[in-house]
Specification:
By secondary structure, the protein is of the alpha+beta class. The chain has two domains: 181 residues, BirA Bifunctional Protein, domain 2; 42 residues, SH3 type barrels. Helices cover 27% and strands 33% of the residues. A seven-stranded mixed β-sheet has the order 1-2-3-7-6-5-4, sandwiched between helices. A five-stranded antiparallel β-sheet has the order 11-10-9-8-12, with no helix packed on it. Helix 2 runs antiparallel to helix 4 and helix 2 crosses helix 5. The radius of gyration is 17 Å and the shape is globular.
Length: 229
């Protein structure tokens, strides 16, 4: 079932409310605009009524909180595959939750548990925007900017939902294997994390956390914004 909204504070809030009322696995909330789109660590997600695809999916899976990083990566793989096949592009994945196109952010994913143990998978994709606020222009991009043409958000929505529901059923070892194979950021990349630590990426551990070789040894990165140096 797809619940369509013209405007909302956040599709994640609406999906969480529906989950507490018993809406089933696979229910999707999609909006043309979010006035309070959210990203990881309380960051905002630019969600104006100018061409983005903003959706949240209710997932009812037998998972523990420790599985959350792997689910986030599975959804990244799903969005990457859906966008690549839909638009004929080649996206990259930046651990843990960014989908990039030509080194700029095209999409972001956030996954949270609800009080009823359902998962809410929030996905934002820049589709038909032709410009961004000044502070985002060097960091963000859209399919329209990159391909020079407008795209059907409804057609992309169908692909993203189908791929997301499929990917959410993958087991953790397969998720980690595929993410490492489809991301240039997982191994051999010089990066910094939140501007506080620098090193070279050295793969994922068994839980899906990033390993970073630094001058002091190998660090296990549990969270943080990863950026190339």
């Amino acid at each position: 079932m797809i619940v369509r909204l013209r405007s909302t504070t956040s599709t994640m809030f609406d999906a969480a409310a529906l989950a507490t009322r018993g809406r089933p696995h696979g229910t999707v909330v999609v909006a043309d605009e979010q006035t309070g789109g959210i990203g990881r660590h309380g960051h905002s997600w630019h969600s104006g009524p100018d061409g983005g695809l903003y959706l949240s999916i209710i997932l009812r899976l037998a998972l523990a909180p420790a599985d959350l990083p792997a689910v986030t990566m599975a959804l990244g793989l799903a969005v990457q595959r859906a966008v690549d096949e839909f638009a004929g592009v080649s996206c990259d994945l930046r651990w843990p939750n960014d989908v990039l196109l030509n080194e700029r952010k095209l999409a972001g994913i956030m996954v949270q548990f609800t009080e009823t143990d359902a998962l809410i998978a929030g996905i934002g994709i820049n589709v038909n925007q032709t410009d961004f606020p000044e502070e985002l222009r060097a960091l963000a991009t859209s399919l329209r900017i990159e391909t020079g043409r407008e795209h059907s958000k409804d057609a992309l929505l169908d692909r993203v939902v189908a791929e997301s529901l499929r990917a959410a059923q993958m087991n953790k070892p397969e998720i980690l294997k595929q993410f490492a194979a489809h991301s240039t950021y997982i191994s051999g990349k010089e990066v910094e994390v939140d501007g506080r630590i620098r090193g070279v990426t050295a793969g994922l551990d068994e839980d899906g956390f990033l390993l970073l070789k630094t001058a002091a040894g190998v660090e296990r990165i549990i969270s943080g914004g990863v950026r190339p140096i």
